[in-house]
Design goal:
Elements (H helix, E strand, L loop, with lengths): L21 H5 L7 E8 L2 H10 L7 E8 L17 E8 L11 H16 L5 E4 L3 E4 L2 E11 L2 E9 L25 H20 L5 H6 L7 E5 L5 E9 L5 E3 L4 E2 L3 E4 L2
Parallel strand pairs: 1-2
Antiparallel strand pairs: 2-3, 3-7, 4-5, 5-6, 6-7, 8-9, 8-12, 9-10, 10-11
Helix pairs in contact: 3-4
């Protein structure tokens, strides 16, 4: 079993929520990225996908918002958060690697997210639950969605930043504020993420195998799990590795490409 000690501070008051500011974010990132902030939208993922379809976005385009009314996670599940309480953004990249490798990008995004969080607060010990959950302890603090669009991939990220216990969408969720995270400034979290992703993405583009980094920070690999498939069927097994394309490999040699993972005790 994985054992981590975590700083936990349960707050009854709402943590400070500095507004998103594209100029503040842009000062801290390379010119590869172009960040747009919108006050309210249906979904940053839908907005950016439409821009790509209209050929109005190129690699490095980022949209983030204070509030989205129709946010969604993986398998089209609803993702909702009170205004300014979460960091919600989507970005577009055009990989040069073979398209069969693109499905590793959600895992690379998760790595970038937890590297960013530990850069800002080294005492935090986030892990990754395959395929797209960011965990602190057993609580989900963030999630990732990805879809091919145009000549690349639109990737959406949601991280619960300033949410109080009462604002959490489900009992299995948590937030950075509830773990006494060192900074709740979403501008700083986003700029740190973009810089981190850019570095890892370039290494991946150059052909580097980054699976060892993922395995070291996976809460799934090495554990007995149950895979719950969209059709209602399920299978138990032990997760032992991931493929270069991001598929989960079980001890019996089978591969998992889609499904909900339940960690078995």
């Amino acid at each position: 079993m994985w054992a981590h000690e975590h700083k936990v501070l349960v707050v009854s008051t709402v943590a400070p929520r500095p507004p998103l500011d594209s100029s503040v974010i842009s000062e801290k990132i390379s010119q590869y990225w172009r960040v747009s902030v919108v006050e309210v939208t249906g979904s940053t993922q839908d907005d950016l996908t439409q821009l790509v379809a209209d050929k109005k976005a190129k690699s490095g385009e980022v949209i983030t918002t204070e509030y989205q009314s129709a946010g969604r996670g993986r398998l089209d599940r609803k993702f909702d958060a009170p205004a300014s309480s979460a960091l919600m953004f989507s970005f577009y990249v055009e990989p040069i690697r073979d398209k069969s490798d693109w499905s590793f990008l959600p895992l690379l995004t998760g790595l970038s997210a937890i590297f960013s969080l530990t850069t800002l607060d080294p005492e935090l010990s986030p892990t990754l639950k395959w395929p797209n959950d960011i965990l602190i302890g057993d609580g989900k603090v963030g999630g990732i969605i990805a879809q091919t669009s145009g000549d690349g991939v639109v990737i959406g990220v949601g991280i619960n930043v300033g949410m109080s216990q009462e604002e959490l969408p489900v009992v299995t969720a948590t937030s950075l504020a509830l773990h006494n995270f060192s900074t709740l400034d979403r501008n700083l979290i986003l700029s740190t993420f973009l810089a981190t992703f850019e570095e890892l993405f370039q290494r991946w583009q150059n052909g580097e195998d980054l699976r060892h980094l993922y395995k070291e920070r996976s809460a799934t690999i090495g554990h007995d799990i149950r895979i719950e498939h969209p059709d209602g069927s399920h299978k138990n097994g032990k997760a032992v590795d991931v493929t270069p394309a991001g598929e989960l490999i079980l001890e019996d040699g089978s591969r998992v490409t889609v499904g909900d993972i339940v960690h078995l005790r």
